[in-house]
Amino acid sequence: MKFETAKKNLTKRAENFYGISLEELIEFIDTHPQAESLSVMKAYDAYKQGLGLVWSGLLGNGWVERPKADLIYREYKSGQMEMDI
User: How far is CA 46 from CA 72, 83, 84, in A?
Assistant: First the structure.
């Protein structure tokens, strides 16, 4: 899905379904991702990727910029930080 399509779909969902802004919907999905349908989550992923972010699930991180994701990965692999289980 392209960034513009994802943004359009998310804006429609925010305004027509919830009556909120796009920014408020993104914040809601950030904190409650399981509350949305798969199609909305696909649009959310495409939207975040369109902003230049990558997913880094290591060490409790989420969507981050590429340099930070690389740093997180190197720290995780070097054992400087331990993962909480």
Answer: 22, 28, 29
Give one DSSP letter per residue of the chain, joined into a string.
--HHHHHHHHHHIIIIII---HHHHHHHHHH-GGGS-HHHHHHHHHHHHHTTEEE--GGG--EEEHHHHHHHHHHHHHTSSPPP-
Q: Tell me the pLDDT tens digit for each residue of 21-45.
A: 999 999 999 999 899 999 999 999 9
What whole-number distance in Å separates Cα of residue 19 and Cα of residue 57?
A: 30
Task: Write out pLDDT tens, residues 38-79.
Answer: 999 999 999 999 999 999 888 778 899 999 988 888 888 887
Q: Which amino acid is at 85?
A: I
Q: Which long-range contacts (CB under 8 A, 24 or more apart) does 51-57 make?
A: 51/3
pTM, to two decimals = 0.79
